Amino acid sequence: xxxxxxxxxxxxxxxxxxxxxxxxxxxxxxxxxxxxxxxxxxxxxxxxxxxxxxxxxxxxxxxxxxxxxxxxxxxxxxxxxxxxxxxxxxxxxxxxxxxxxxxxxxxxxxxxxxxxxxxxxxxxxxxxxxxxxxxxxxxxxxxxxxxxxxxxxxxxxxxxxxxxxxxxxxxxxxxxxxxxxxxxxxxxxxxxxxxxxxxxxxxxxxxxxxxxxxxxxxxxxxxxxxxxxxxxxxxxxxxxxxxxxxxxxxxxxxx
Length: 255
Prior knowledge:
Order of helices and strands: EHEHEHEEHEEEEEEEEHHH
Largest sheet: 7 strands, mixed
Number of helices: 7
Distance between the termini: 53 Å
């Protein structure tokens, strides 16, 4: 077998079919670790002959992603999320590159769909992510919700896009935004641990004022997020607000 497509899922019945259709001709096997979904995710996945392993649903879903990677048997791993789609151009490029590989892993550009359009500015494209790597050469640290796989060896670049549909609408985006902020708050708490009063003051000012201001100006002005019109503004604004929002969650949780 040449390619194992691996995923971690939890209640992804609205996304999983579209995802698996995009790789059914590419994959030699599909491996899914499901966090005990209560919807039809597992039922739909089995229609694609996926090997489904049901377990618990940890807050950091990269734990289950790594479990899926560990179950894979093919020479190459294609790591995906249920809300992603392999474009036809990317599928052809992957087939070609594994026949004559130049590296142990590959970055691929990702297009992110937000408020009815793909964001092309604001640092959102190309949103490079490491998703294709030789089995045994890539591993997830399982510490951060936005982490990349660590590759042992050379890493090269693909040209064709991975399509990402993370949000059905703004309310879905806001729900995910709050969930990520709760995880981010725990990282801030760890950052503050063992800091003296002066160090804590610097971190506080950073999260409440400096980081959000810098992030918004960088994404919306420097990286021209304004070209994406209203979706670009909303995305830059809420991306910046995650810093003070997460800090305030940390304060609330540690009263």
